[in-house]
Amino acid sequence: MADEPKAPSEAQGENERPASAGQPAGSPAPIDEGSRATPAGGPSPPANAPAPAAKPPAAAKPPAKPAAKPDPWTSPLVEELQKRFPGAIRDPLIFRNQPFLTVAKESLVPVCEFLKSEEGGAYTFLTDETAVDYPKRPQRFEIIYQLYSFKRNDRLRLKVLAGEGEKVPSAAAIWPAANWLEREVYDMFGVVYEGHPNLKRILLPDEWTGHPLRKDSDILRQDEAWVQANLGIKSGQ
Amino acid sequence: MPEVTYLDADELVINMGPQHPATHGVLRVKLKLDGERVTGSECIIGYLHRGIEKIAENRTYQQFAPYVDRMDYVAAVTNGMGYCEAVEKLLGAEIPPRAQYTRMILAELQRIASHLLWLGTHALDLGAMTPVFYTFREREEILRIFENYCGARLTTHAFRIGGLLYDLYDGFEKEVRKFSDMFLGKIDEYEQLLTKNRIWLERTQNVGILKAEDAIAYAVTGPVLRGSGVKWDVRKAQPYEAYDKVEFDVPVGRHEGWGDTYDRYLVRLAEMRQSVRIIRQAVERLESGPIFGKVGKIIKPPAGFEVYHAIESPKGELGYLVVSDGTTHPYRVRVRPPSFVNLQAFDLMARGHLIADVVAIIGTIDIVLGEVDR
């Protein structure tokens, strides 16, 4: 590839960086100002695919580069959910053909029960449950549920926001698979689940302090504390 | 009249593992026993926890790729495939057909290798010494193909985000065809040793029964789910790579709505046959062409959003949730490990069985502790 087109796209990468670095922590809403609305995912990505690196045409119109962004998701299921649980369903979006929505914590259990039932799409399969930590947001934890429906052959991603010390209702009574998955989230993030049958650490030893997948977890400090307590010297490093 | 017990009626709690040859690694199972019968169990895991998900946050997208090989270390190719595809999906990148079919061939070879390792050790656990020598003989052939392709046998790091680093070597197609012709006969050999063997039937039939509704409730996937009669495979339900362009069947167990250890054994053997079918079709469709898609050297996916991508690994549904913040490092990578989730159903399957059957049940779930603990 020639040097000519590459240079502007690199400079553009620099411009974009500070803007995008601040935003993901701030708001879950779409963050890029890409003027070109794209059909997310789908079979036609080559047109906008190589978002990251040197692509000559991108140099011509700088804002087009971060073109990938979620589209609003409309479906009968969302309408039904919004009708049944007014105010509890926020931001139904679809990104790369993957729909997701945010559920208010208070309505999580009824929403999940509805989704599991026949009329709610028979999402009987909780593929995964995990969390993502955004320490700068007012509610730092985003709990993510991956649901799957055999009937519809369809995946759905639920998100629940929880702040530090806020309890999240456990889904273990609805999908037994959540038992260990929630224990892992508790272990790694310190999210406490309400109504969980056996909430204790699963991968780390019981006497472990801290929750390592939090962004502010610092293994070095913890190591030092252990050395000071157990070996009586100042630091092991 | 009260029931007469000659032994101390108190419940006995014993630890099986973490150093036990039949737990396939460092699984510790706390068994509650009534005599020799299991009345309850608890799996204690984490002995092999290396913080893979935390490591991901401190590496670039490409740098993290070799780490995923260390999770399910007997099926590194499928691990890498899942991760590369997840990042490609996040980027919206497409990879050329030659790379897709190469990935499929290697992934199916890896599935066979993983099932062979499982079959050999599972039979060994149950007292059949011979199969392990047979299965390792064929597994060696597969590992030799891997070694010729990318220089490594186990932790291969075979794929790159965007396609392949190496094109196929001369004679790859020939070797793979030779292997697939030879291998079907070898499956018959294993079947001669086990399928109608009376001891094998006694040890596996009606042991570790898992009902289909329990399997779904516990999110069990892979051969364990199919052994329980649920015809579901990620490759069919939500095809990735070019799995929608090849023909293969999804084998299920003998029963409607439930399955035992023997069902899962049959399912895995049938799966190996299907893998050979896929490999044969994929080799025919290998055309010369590019092996790398339009992915730059610096990977910066769009910020603030995530994708979940799942593939059918030999153990079940292996999923990656990759969250991007627009930098070169992933903000978070979550691995949905099939072994971890499947192991949760162990307690359900073990209750009421004898200690000796616990060995069979651990074996039949086919866990790899590197993936359970990550």
Order of adjacent strands in the largest pleated sheet of chain A: 1-2-3-6-5-4
Level-2 CATH architecture of the largest domain in chain A: 2-Layer Sandwich
CATH topology of the largest domain in chain A: Beta Polymerase, domain 2
DSSP helix count of chain B?
Answer: 15
Number of domains of chain B: 1
Describe the fold and architecture:
The complex is a heterodimer of chains A (237) and B (374). With 237 residues, chain A is an alpha/beta fold. Chain A has five helices and eight strands; from the N terminus they run H-E-H-E-E-H-E-E-E-E-H-E-H. Chain A has helices at residues 3-26, 76-84, 108-116, 178-189, 219-231; strands at residues 71-72, 89-95, 98-103, 125-133, 141-149, 154-162, 167-169, 192-194. Chain A has a six-stranded mixed sheet with strand order 1-2-3-6-5-4. By secondary structure, chain B is an alpha+beta fold. Chain B has one domain: Orthogonal Bundle (Cytochrome-c3 Hydrogenase, chain B), CATH 1.10.645. Chain B has 15 helices and ten strands. The model of chain B has no long low-confidence stretch (mean pLDDT 88). At the A-B interface, helix 1, strand 4 and helix 4 of A face helix 1, helix 3, strand 8, strand 9 and strand 10 of B.
Descriptive terms for the model:
heterodimer, A: 237 residues, alpha/beta, Beta Polymerase, domain 2, 2 domains, six-stranded mixed β-sheet, two-stranded parallel sheet, 28% helix, disordered N terminus, B: 374 residues, alpha+beta, Cytochrome-c3 Hydrogenase, chain B, three-stranded antiparallel β-sheet, 47% helix, globular
